[in-house]
Every structure is written in C-alpha cells, then in structure tokens.
C-alpha cells in the first residue's frame, strides 16, 4: 500500500512538471510569434585597388597603400553622398519608398583584414528591395569614389546581388523560445514538487 501511495505521488509530480512544461513552451511560442519579424538580406562585393598592370615593385606599394585605405573606403561607402547617388539607380517604384537617408540605413559595409575587398549588405522588407538597394549602392560607390577620394584605387564590382541569392531571416527563432519555455516550466514544476514533498514530510 505504501508503494502504491508513493507511485501515485510520483505520477502526480510528473503530471505537474509536464503540465507546466507544456504551459511554458506554449506561452513562449506565442510570445515568439507575437514578436517575430521577417526581413531579407542581400550583399555585393567589390575590389578596390590600383591597376594590376603597374610594375611589380609599384604593385607591392599600391597593395599596401590600398589595404591601409580600406577603412576610409568603408566610411565613404556609408556616407550619405553615396546613398544620394545610389537612389538614381533604383527602379521608379522603389524611389518613392526609399529616400537617400533610408537607403543609407538599409545598406552597410564591411571589410576583411589584409584584403582589398569591401562587401555591402542590405536589409529590407522584400527580396526586391534588398537586391536593388545593395546593387545601387555598389554602382554609386564605383562612380562616386574617384571624385570623393582623388587617387583612390579602381573599384571593380563583383557579381551583382540577385533575388535567388537573397536570404530570408525571421527573428526571434520560435524554437529557442519554446526551449526556454519548456526549461522554465520544468524548473517551476520541480520547485513546486520539492516544496510540496518537503511540506508533506514536515507535517
């Protein structure tokens, strides 16, 4: 009889823990869905360097100088002047939606150490906008850099961004929220069971 009573208590505790886990998981899933947003990203890279047809000794100097200039090129690529020039390359329907300021917020740049490559990234609410803005900014950088930074290296644009390559990003991830909810539910359930068991023994 004693064993039967203990079994019932264990079943009760398991039910409590599992029930709170389900409640926690479902609650966090709902919270994740409520907070969830979806956006699209696209990127385009370019190489900025002086002519590869210079003499070998000069090439080494140019490459070193160009590498040192990459942070400057990165800053220029994020300047509002580039965004204003980029807006001219947008399709007419996107020009109405994207001001130069918004383009500037949509696209950012990064450089790699010991490299002559600059990569632009865009983040927009559609594949079309992400691809169009990053391609427009890359074209504007190629056209405007020589006048902004005289003596700069030549901008060689790599393959343009395409819709097929644009990535869809949804955040926050519902699975992570559910996992946290399950863990919290289990923890609360175990605490309740521990308190109840301790209290029953004291009595």
What does this structure look like?
With 203 residues, this protein is of the alpha+beta class. About 4% of the residues have low confidence. Helix 1 packs antiparallel against helix 7. The radius of gyration is 29 Å and the shape is elongated. 27% of the residues are buried. The protein has seven helices and five strands, in the order αβααααββαββα. The two termini are 20 Å apart. Helices cover 62% and strands 17% of the residues. Strands 1, 2, 3, 4 and 5 form a five-stranded antiparallel beta sheet that branches. The longest helix has 34 residues.
List keywords for this structure.
5-stranded antiparallel β-sheet, 7 helices, elongated, alpha+beta, 17% strand, 62% helix, single chain, 203 residues
Write the layout of secondary structure elements.
Blueprint: H1 2-35, E1 37-49, H2 56-77, H3 80-87, H4 92-95, H5 100-106, E2 107-111, E3 117-124, H6 127-148, E4 154-157, E5 167-171, H7 174-202
Antiparallel strand pairs: 1-3, 1-4, 1-5, 2-3
N→C terminal distance = 20 Å
Shape: elongated
Total helical elements = 7
The percentage helix is 55-70%
List low-pLDDT spans: 53-60
Compressed to H and E, one letter per element, the order equals HEHHHHEEHEEH
Q: What portion of residues belong to β-strands?
A: 15-25%
Structural class: alpha+beta
Question: How confident overall, as mean pLDDT?
Answer: 85
Radius of gyration: 29 Å
Total strand segments: 5
Major β-sheet annotation: 5 strands, antiparallel
């Amino acid at each position: 009889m004693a064993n039967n009573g203990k079994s019932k208590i264990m079943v009760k505790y398991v039910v409590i823990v599992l029930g709170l886990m389900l409640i926690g998981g479902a609650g966090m899933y709902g919270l994740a869905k409520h907070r969830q947003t979806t956006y699209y990203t696209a990127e385009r890279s370019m190489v900025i360097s002086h002519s590869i047809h210079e003499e070998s000794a000069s090439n080494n100097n140019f490459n070193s100088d160009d590498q040192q200039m990459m942070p400057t090129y990165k800053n220029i690529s994020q300047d509002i002047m580039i965004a204003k020039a980029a807006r001219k390359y947008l399709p007419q329907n996107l020009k109405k939606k994207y001001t130069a300021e918004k383009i500037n917020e949509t696209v950012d740049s990064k450089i790699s150490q010991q490299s002559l490559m600059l990569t632009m990234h865009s983040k927009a609410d559609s594949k079309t906008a992400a691809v169009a803005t990053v391609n427009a900014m890359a074209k504007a950088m190629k056209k405007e850099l020589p006048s902004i930074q005289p003596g700069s290296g030549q901008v060689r644009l790599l393959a343009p961004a395409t819709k097929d390559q644009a990535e869809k990003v949804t955040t926050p991830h519902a699975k992570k929220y559910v996992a946290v909810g399950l863990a919290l539910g289990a923890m609360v359930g175990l605490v309740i069971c521990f308190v109840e068991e301790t209290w029953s023994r004291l009595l």
